[in-house]
Description:
Elements: H1 16-90, H2 99-153
Helix pairs in contact: 1-2
Amino acid sequence: xxxxxxxxxxxxxxxxxxxxxxxxxxxxxxxxxxxxxxxxxxxxxxxxxxxxxxxxxxxxxxxxxxxxxxxxxxxxxxxxxxxxxxxxxxxxxxxxxxxxxxxxxxxxxxxxxxxxxxxxxxxxxxxxxxxxxxxxxxxxxxxxxxxxxxxxxx
Length: 154
């Protein structure tokens, strides 16, 4: 068995009653101060967790909105491509093409090429912003988990 060593074994006999009276009060004050500090830390962590959950919810909403917009743009682009393909098929080899219609086709072709390039740029920007927001969402989730783990650990 182990021997329990009491603090009184190391003190002078004349100091024991005074120190024995002071020890519980000092310990209580120290413990209450430590408890108050821990409580304030827990409250701060809860506040951080709540704000992170709000940020996370906002990011999820933005991602969903961007996905809807991306789907709309992609469908518009596909419709545009289908329209261009239909227009190309409509021209027969036996049709007589005048010079003015050739210019119209060339200007329309240039117009659609610009539109197509602009849509591709928009899609790239949306994909990049989705990627960035997805990363931000993952980071926010990790921070939430970390804060929750810290909160649970305390």
